[in-house]
Specification:
Blueprint lengths: L1 E5 L6 H8 L3 E4 L5 E4 L5 H7 L5 E6 L13 H16 L13
Antiparallel strand pairs: 1-3, 1-4, 2-3
């Protein structure tokens, strides 16, 4: 996962993703873009994005669920409590839940 901001207004994220070698992207409302790539291509895509008008803010290995799960009511409350308990543990660095937004 590569978090990047456009260096100039009007930069095309789709073109940048294709040319840099990213496999997918998500543009957020604040203008930042998350580029997704295979782990082996993370460094190459990170180095290529500035050539296509993006300033890389962070690059890291992460997890994006293929089949997000939607929960409601008590089930959602139970899972959120569980995730908060895990996240509060000092030994846990990252939590990647497969919950739909």
């Amino acid at each position: 996962m590569i978090e990047a901001l456009p260096a100039t207004a009007g930069t095309d994220p789709d073109l940048a993703a294709i040319e840099a070698g990213a496999s997918d992207l998500e543009v957020s409302g604040d203008g930042s873009t998350v580029f997704y790539t295979e782990p082996a291509d993370l460094d190459a895509v990170t180095r290529a994005l500035p050539n296509y008008g993006y300033s890389v803010q962070a690059a890291y290995l992460g997890y994006r669920p293929k089949n997000p799960v939607s929960l409601q009511g008590a089930d959602l409350a139970d899972v959120e409590a569980f995730l908060e308990a895990i996240d509060a543990d000092d030994d846990v660095q990252n939590v990647y839940p497969a919950l739909a937004d």
